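Supplementary Text 2. Reproducibility record for the structural model of the 342-residue chain.

All settings were left at their defaults, and a single model was retained for analysis rather than an ensemble. We include the record here because the model underlies the residue-level annotations in Supplementary Table 4.
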Amino acid sequence: MKKPILVFKVGTSSLTHSDGRINEVLIRDFARQLAGLQKRYHIVMVSSGAVGAGKKYLRRYSGQMSERKAAAAVGNPLLISMYFEAFRPYDIGIAQSLCERRHFSDRKQFLQLKQTYKELWANGIIPIANENDVVSDYELKFSDNDELATLIAVGFGAELLLIGTSVPGVLDANGQVVREIATFTDEVLGLAHTETSAGGLGGMISKLTFARLATGLGVKVIIFQANQENSLLMAEQQKVGTVCPARDTTTNARRKWLASGCLLGGRIKVDKGAQKALMERKSLLAVGIEKVVQPFNRGEVIEIMGHTGRTPFAVGRVKVSSDELVKTKNLEVAHADEIVLL
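Retained model, structure tokens:
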């Protein structure tokens, strides 16, 4: 029987000690738990920590972009060797997968990546993914590893995305864990603090933003504290953390890729009538566009905002540029088949 896919992402703050050193005991514990889960899932691990592993080898490290890239170059092989040793007792091989944004935005490269992962799984190997910080262009890089994990989970059709963090889950105003988030309202998004973790790039707002995308495209997400005993196994059983159930979706694989993997080239705001039409699976017409928030070129994928919303409710591949909209309103901007509701 074909096994479902589980993606586990762990951030820098969960993976390191307070002084920035990699927690090798925790890495060994992750290996133990993932070895058990591998019997029921094809697994992808998205691991931060390369910069943290390598920065101690740089003199007078101050966190500048070039220094982060250099630290990642040193830290990547060190981190992957820790995972290699941790999985060795379970006779499980691991593979390093350094990803760039273009591997997802270019559909041909994305399908090649997917095929490579399938070959690894067929041989009992767990791919460990991270951004290729050494060469990633600043303008085209992932916002953080929460995004990378989400793109893998959505693009590969994962059943479950486990996001490990340094706190017990999404916390309410009283510091209590919100056990379930079924709808991502502005109130829910407001629960997230804006600050990032001490060692990483993302924070809870990042996790909620990508959890919203993943659940809308059929992936269950659980946000939990990773550095606790048996945390992975407990999260998989929904006994800890914040559970974000997957929404029912009939979106096919290509449209999921369109919604999650493409580089976004612009943003528009539509009026009430256009928003209603799009929600009814109709095409986007130029007459319904209130404002071009960010210009775009023909063929790019853009974000579509409603007349009152602050976050996009859809994305679509456009047939015209924003410059062409100025010339005439009698245009079909994006066909219904090229629009995905989020």
